């Protein structure tokens, strides 16, 4: 339970695969690739300029909640560019760090006495006098941080860590939907499909058809209104450069019959092919 950011710039795999070609095939790995019950927040960039803000957001979550965070990009974004307005630093999210400086239980330091709101534990710089505590991978006793093999304590700590990550949903923006009104079909994407989905949606709307779009930047936890959004539409299309990983998560989490548009060719989607897929679904 310490801040760490793992940047995963996805490319076509497995193994060395096609190392200069984009793919979105690591989503399930970062969601479930750690051993045991150990959920981790996942943030995804969607544009070259957005990579900066995604990195700030990953750092904010990691520091505030004392947790590793996966930051997903891909080869398409990594090799892309666009004009970028240098932001006003004072307007950026606060990523300052508050270290523990004194005992928090009389003269005793309890390294796992959690913040009541975030469930984050205090962060003490190693070697701070009076704040010595155990670190390492063995299970810790609640509050004291002593090594523990107690079954009830392990169950408690697993649930606390999961609740901490789940609680981040209340601290991130709700999922925004671009819906001109009257649409019964939602196109939901994540990552670098943002541009192609937007261009395809404009073409479909120009043909007189009604279509809504939304794009996820937080993949774990999902924005708190995600279930409400996806259940509001009769049809949900999820374009991904994989074999349907976000679609699988949406079906499992929200019990919606999401439909995938999936290709793994080492190439980004073209607006024209997504236009055809969206049109076919709207007309079905």
Any key phrases for this structure?
284 residues; alpha/beta; Rossmann fold; 3 domains; four-stranded mixed sheet; 8 helices; 15% strand
What report would you give on this structure?
This protein is of the alpha/beta class and 284 residues long. The protein folds into three domains: 4-91, Rossmann fold (3-Layer(aba) Sandwich), CATH 3.40.50.970; 99-168, no CATH class; 177-283, Rossmann fold (3-Layer(aba) Sandwich). The strands form two sheets. The protein has a five-stranded mixed beta sheet with strand order 4-6-5-8-9, sandwiched between helices. The chain has eight helices and nine strands. Helix 5 (194-206) packs across helix 8. 34% of the residues are buried.
Summarize the structure.
The chain is 29% helix and 15% strand. It is built from 8 helices and 9 strands.
């Amino acid at each position: 339970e310490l801040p760490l950011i793992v940047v995963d710039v996805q490319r076509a795999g497995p193994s060395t695969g096609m190392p200069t070609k984009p793919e979105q095939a690591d989503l399930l790995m970062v969601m479930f690739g750690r051993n045991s019950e150990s959920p981790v927040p996942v943030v995804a960039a969607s544009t070259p300029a957005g990579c900066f803000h995604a990195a700030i957001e990953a750092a904010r979550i990691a520091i505030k909640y004392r947790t590793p965070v996966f930051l997903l990009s891909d080869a398409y974004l990594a090799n892309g560019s666009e004009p970028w307005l240098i932001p006003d630093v004072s307007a950026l999210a606060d990523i300052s760090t508050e270290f523990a400086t004194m005992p928090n239980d009389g003269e005793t330091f309890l390294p796992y006495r959690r913040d009541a709101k975030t469930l984050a534990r205090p962060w003490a710089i190693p070697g701070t006098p009076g704040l010595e505590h155990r670190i390492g991978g063995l299970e810790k006793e609640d509050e004291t941080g002593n090594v523990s093999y107690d079954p009830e304590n392990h169950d408690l700590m697993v649930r606390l860590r999961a609740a901490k990550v789940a609680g981040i949903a209340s601290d991130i923006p709700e999922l925004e939907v671009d819906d001109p009104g009257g649409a019964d079909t939602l196109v939901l994407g994540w990552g670098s499909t943002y541009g192609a989905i937007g261009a395809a949606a404009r073409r479909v709307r120009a043909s007189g058809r009604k279509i809504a779009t939304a794009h996820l930047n937080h993949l774990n936890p999902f924005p708190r209104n995600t279930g409400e959004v996806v259940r509001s539409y009769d049809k949900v299309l999820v374009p991904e450069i994989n074999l349907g990983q976000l679609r699988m998560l949406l079906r499992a989490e929200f019990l919606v019959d999401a439909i995938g548009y999936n290709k793994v060719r080492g190439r980004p989607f073209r607006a024209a092919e997504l236009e055809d897929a969206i049109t076919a679904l709207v007309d079905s």
